[in-house]
Design brief:
The chain has 584 residues and is an all-beta fold. The chain has one helix and 55 strands. It starts with a strand and ends with a strand.
Length: 584
């Protein structure tokens, strides 16, 4: 009876072998049936195996008879041996048998070759998602759902590892609400042992609401303020940032707060008030509503502070130099100002008469001041000490900056350092660097060899004059503190010197003639820096790297060797060596 064996992948037949038997038989494929060995038989009797495993055929004349390995031979050869069948990749492979007794009957024995691992995905289930600078943030009530699917043999195992706590089987979606950075790793394997490449998700959970802090600058003692008082909020959120802030006075409607703006006080009446406020971040984490109460005294003197000298303001921070004075002014629209008092860094109160210098110590300082009008306005009924408690002002912190910027420079291009001197070429850019961690950098200037006025630095520059040049680098901060450094740079355009010699003496009465077996040795020196590699060309040929000698010359031939040497700064020297070889 004829048996036809076909291998089929994606419905294409790959090859055919025909056997003829005159006895009844059973035809089996022998293999282990567990995923660790790469095989699997499902409940319907379908046989699966990894696509790259070999298949060995065993044959028997009865269902339970002895299984004999089926031998074969390579087409065109005589040697017979047990050879495996190598499947042609992922897909369904078919061994087909036509019944010898009844040609109408045809049987197919199918091998499901599984060469593809499962594919797993992760879903992050929450409406609170925000992406910032390449990082994904999730808010409250996050639930993670994992899914996997396999094209052929099916899923054997599905595992995940959350925050390096160890791999565990995945069964159901799971919540995660802990604040901070998280890492999720997961993979699956199918029933014949194909393992999916482990996937990783990095993400951050932010379930903390923003923090809003109120700040009062101006006439402020306990809960008493004036119209000159500045009230603003400082907004903080550790991760995604504050999206909105809202506030309201007393029972008014909620209004949006715009960052760094002062709350409007002028429409409020004289007396007690309460302001409520809260913030919400981009993940809808909402801060608990906060409140603070104050008394608005519209009849107290109005004060202002003016800076005489260097001043620079960044946001709410004010920077002063050691040359700066502070001038206090008080105005009262009724009885007039009687006295003005001030205190520095919590020190004793001093009656103000003239503008005064700020402390000669770098850092943040707090200046308090208040005024008393001629009617001894006590502001709040029942105040024990109106001079200190009712009219005291609190100015936002000021910073006294006594030092200039820190300066440095960087060479962009060819350079070489010998001892304490940098050597550079006329094409090397000099980039000036400055930073000031206090009031900030205002500008950089420089001067070459102490000549002329300071040149304002804008972009990197070069030095064209040869030899040693002295560069004076000057930096100014925003309160006009000055700092200077000096450096010396040597501009070098001198190319290396090339020298050479032959291994054999010149023949007598022959100026440039050598035996063909002669060897040519090259060398170079540079007075300032150092030479790099030596290259040469023979009779106009390609450039070659010199490696210690040049040899292998032909007999009776003229040679022109062009030698090229470059130093560390890119200065190039060239020289031609012309000679002839003899007939030996």
């Amino acid at each position: 009876m004829p048996i036809s064996l076909f291998y089929m992948k994606n419905k294409y037949f790959l090859f055919l072998v025909t056997f003829l038997f005159i006895f009844s038989f059973s035809f089996t494929i022998y293999a282990q049936t567990d995923s660790l060995s790469g095989t699997y038989i499902d409940e319907n009797g379908k046989y699966y195996q990894q696509a790259d495993l070999p298949v060995y055929l065993h044959i028997s004349t009865s269902p339970n008879g002895e299984k004999i390995p089926l031998s074969g031979r390579k087409v065109g050869e005589k040697q017979i041996s047990v050879q495996p069948i190598i499947l042609d990749g992922h897909g369904m492979h078919v061994i087909k048998h036509n019944d010898g007794k009844n040609s109408r009957n045809s049987y197919e024995y199918i091998i499901y070759a599984d060469g593809l691992p499962p594919i797993s995905t992760a879903k992050f289930l929450t409406p609170n998602i925000y992406r910032k600078n390449g990082t994904t943030f999730y808010g409250q009530n996050l639930e993670i759902e994992l899914n996997t699917k396999d094209q052929m043999s099916g899923i054997e195992g599905f595992y995940y590892n959350l925050d390096e706590t160890g791999m565990q089987p995945y069964t159901n979606s799971f919540p995660i609400n802990s604040e901070g950075n998280h890492s999720l790793k997961y993979f699956s394997l199918d029933k014949v042992g194909n393992v999916e490449t482990e996937k990783t998700k990095e993400f951050v959970i932010d379930v903390s609401p923003p923090i809003s802090t109120y700040n009062i600058v101006g006439i402020n003692s306990e809960n008493v303020i004036s119209l000159s008082t500045k009230i603003y909020f400082t907004l903080e959120d550790n991760n995604v940032g504050v999206k909105n802030t809202f506030y309201r006075f007393d029972d008014q409607s909620w209004k949006p707060y715009y960052n760094k703006r002062n709350l409007p006080l002028r429409a409020l009446s004289d007396g007690n008030h309460t302001v409520d406020f809260y913030s919400i971040d981009y993940l809808k984490n909402k801060e608990t509503t906060q409140s603070f109460s104050f008394y608005l005294d519209k009849t107290a003197p109005i004060m202002s502070a003016d800076v005489l000298g260097d001043k620079f303001i960044v946001g709410q921070q004010v920077y002063f130099s050691g040359r700066t004075k502070l001038k206090l002014t008080a105005v009262d629209n009724k009885s007039g100002v009687k006295e003005v008092w001030y205190s520095i860094d919590g020190g004793e109160w001093i009656q103000y008469t003239d503008p005064f210098y700020l402390p000669s110590k770098s850092g943040t300082h707090k200046i308090r001041y208040y005024a008393i009008d001629n009617t001894e306005n006590i502001g709040v009924e029942g105040s024990i000490n109106p001079r200190f408690d009712t009219y005291r002002h609190s100015v936002s912190a000021v910073y006294v900056d006594l030092t200039g910027p820190k300066l440095d420079y960087k060479l962009q291009g060819k350079s070489f350092k010998k001892e304490n001197i940098f050597y550079l070429s006329p094409e090397t850019n000099i980039k000036l660097i400055a930073r000031d961690n206090e009031s900030g950098l205002k500008n950089i200037a420089y001067r070459i060899n102490g000549q002329g006025e300071e040149i304002e630095y804008k972009t990197p520059f070069t030095l064209k004059e040869l030899g040693v040049q002295n560069i004076e680098i000057i930096g100014y901060d925003n309160v006009n503190n000055r700092n200077v450094i000096n450096t010396s740079l040597n501009v070098d355009t001198e190319a290396p010197t090339i020298f050479y010699h032959f291994s054999t003496m010149i023949e007598e009465n022959r100026d440039t003639t050598y035996p063909s077996y002669v060897q040519l040795f090259l060398g170079a020196q540079d007075a300032q820096t150092n030479t790099e590699q030596i290259y040469y060309r023979i009779n106009g040929g390609g450039k070659r790297l010199y490696n210690g000698k040049i040899s292998g010359f032909a007999k009776n031939k003229s040679y022109t060797i062009l030698v090229e040497v470059k130093d560390k700064l890119g200065n190039i020297a060239k020289e031609e060596i012309i000679f002839e070889t003899l007939e030996y």
